[in-house]
Structure formats: structure tokens, C-alpha cells
């Protein structure tokens, strides 16, 4: 899911890694799938492992980290994007009181943000439109950001989403350029296209460092906790498939060798 929480480029920067995040809760503190097992979600009654991506709540007994963000977050998610594959849902799991998720384009509960200006600060859309300004420039000229709005969809759906009447008058801010750590490449898009949760992480970090002028000390690295948990599962599956492929090649080679020996024995 490389999504429109993504195409922000000024200066190429290295991708974020587990090792580069000083505040990330160690992934190995999470119980294994065998230890946890799947449980029934209290709300929808579906079986889930770590959290219910449909109800957007952690499962009972799962030690999920929590973070406090420097501003509020609204995720406007295209309803055809699978919840199970959406990294934006991770923000709701770790910052539940500051994060809202709306299913668009027919989200009846999505408020009209108007011009984005409010008594407690601005609501801005994180999107690289032609008129977008950097987070640093926006805060320097307009003032405090109270809420980021992030679109969670593919680039094929972005036109519909940005034309939503509730969003169309919002000022847009763009991010500096980063390389994604996402494991599922998007066709015809390079690695400067981030997964949505990466874009959320970088937006929050840029706002704290460049907008609020506060040193960042890893306070919300855990926005990426479930992202890296999922990455570990994907890597493990890749390793299993590679081991299986190697075994099949080895077994195929042995069968071929035995066949050749049998042919020679018959010829003799």
C-alpha cells in the first residue's frame, strides 16, 4: 500500500529502520503468534491476532505501545482499500484518542473542514498539490497546526479523494523526501512513495522539529511499531519460501542425478 501519504520530495533522505529509531518498543517484546493465538474481537466477533483492523482496536492481552502526538490526526481512507492491508490503521491503534479514521468517499461522518483555520490552530491536508508548502514554512507564516488530515488510498483513487467537498478547501503541506521501507513495491512508482503510516510519522516529526522547534527524542517512534512487526512477518515468510525453493532445487537435482545413474546402469 504505497499511498498518497507519500509523494513528497525535496532532498533524498535515508529510509527509517528499526535500528534508527531510539524510541521504538523492541519488536521482540511482543508475544509470538503461537503464544497469543487468535481471539474473538469484542465488537465484531471476528478472530484476530494482534488487533482488529475492522474495529480498529487492539485485542485483549496484546501489549501494544501508545504514543502522544504533537497534534491530532484524521485519516480519510478510501472504503475499497482493505483494512487488513492499511498501515494507516496502525495510528489509530497506538494513538487512539488523537486519531480518527473515516471511510470515504461516502463518509457521512466526515466533517467539512472549510478553510482549515480554527481557534486552536490549522487543519491541513498532507498532500503534494501544486500549492502545497512545507510544514516548516506553513507554521512560520500561518501558525500552529492543530490537525493533520491524511488520505489513505492508491494513486488511482486520489482524484476522487482530493475532490471531496469536505477536503477541497484545506491548505496542503508537503513533506521532505524520504525513502520508503515498505515491502510491497508500487507499480511505476519509486521508493520515494511512502506507506501511509510512514508519511504520518514523518509529518508529525517534521512538525515537532521544524514547526514547534522542539528536539525530537523518539517520542512517537512507536507509530511504526506495527509497521515493523508486519515487516518481520513478511521477511519471515520470504525466508521460508526461499528455503522451500532451495530444497526443491536440491531434491530436483538429486532425482535428476539418480535418473542419470539408472540410465547408465541400464545401458551397461
From TrEMBL:
Recorded GO MF terms: tRNA-uridine aminocarboxypropyltransferase activity
Catalytic activity, reaction form: a uridine in tRNA + S-adenosyl-L-methionine = a 3-[(3S)-3-amino-3-carboxypropyl]uridine in tRNA + S-methyl-5'-thioadenosine + H(+)
Family matches, as InterPro entries: DTW, tRNA_Mod/Golgi_Maint
Enzyme class: transferase
PANTHER family given in the database record: NATURAL KILLER CELL-SPECIFIC ANTIGEN KLIP1, TRNA-URIDINE AMINOCARBOXYPROPYLTRANSFERASE 1
Name this polypeptide is given: tRNA-uridine aminocarboxypropyltransferase 1
Record-stated family: Belongs to the TDD superfamily. DTWD1 family.
Record region (Disordered): 241-268
GO CC term, one of those recorded: nucleus
Localization in the cell: Nucleus
Domain DTW: 48-239
Enzyme Commission identifier(s): 2.5.1.25
Gene source species: Pristionchus mayeri
Record keywords, A-Z: Nucleus, S-adenosyl-L-methionine, Transferase, tRNA processing
Amino acid at each position: 500500500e504505497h499511498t498518497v501519504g507519500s509523494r513528497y520530495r525535496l532532498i533524498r533522505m535515508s529510509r527509517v529502520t528499526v535500528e534508527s529509531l531510539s524510541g521504538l518498543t523492541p519488536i521482540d517484546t511482543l508475544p509470538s503468534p503461537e503464544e497469543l493465538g487468535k481471539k474473538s474481537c469484542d465488537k465484531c466477533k471476528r478472530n484476530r491476532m494482534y488487533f482488529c483492523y475492522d474495529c480498529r482496536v487492539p485485542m485483549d492481552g496484546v501489549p501494544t505501545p501508545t504514543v502522544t502526538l504533537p497534534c491530532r490526526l484524521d485519516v480519510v481512507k478510501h472504503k475499497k482499500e482493505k483494512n487488513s492491508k492499511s498501515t494507516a490503521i496502525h495510528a489509530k491503534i497506538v494513538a487512539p484518542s488523537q486519531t480518527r479514521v473515516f471511510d470515504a468517499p461516502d463518509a457521512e461522518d466526515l466533517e467539512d473542514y472549510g478553510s482549515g483555520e480554527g481557534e486552536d490552530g490549522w487543519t491541513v491536508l498532507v498532500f503534494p498539490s501544486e500549492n502545497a508548502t512545507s510544514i516548516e514554512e506553513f507554521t512560520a507564516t500561518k501558525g500552529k497546526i492543530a490537525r493533520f488530515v491524511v488520505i489513505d488510498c492508491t494513486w488511482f483513487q486520489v482524484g476522487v479523494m482530493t475532490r471531496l467537498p469536505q477536503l477541497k478547501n484545506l491548505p496542503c503541506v508537503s513533506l521532505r523526501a524520504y525513502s520508503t521501507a515498505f515491502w510491497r513495491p508500487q507499480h511505476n512508482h519509486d521508493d520515494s512513495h511512502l506507506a501511509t503510516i510512514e508519511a504520518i510519522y514523518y509529518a508529525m516529526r517534521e512538525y515537532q522539529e521544524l514547526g514547534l522547534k522542539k528536539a525530537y527524542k523518539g517520542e512517537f517512534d512507536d507509530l511504526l511499531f506495527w509497521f515493523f512487526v508486519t515487516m518481520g512477518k513478511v521477511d519471515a515468510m520470504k525466508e521460508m519460501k526461499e528455503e522451500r525453493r532451495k530444497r526443491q532445487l536440491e531434491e530436483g537435482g538429486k532425482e535428476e542425478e539418480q535418473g542419470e545413474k539408472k540410465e547408465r546402469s541400464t545401458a551397461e
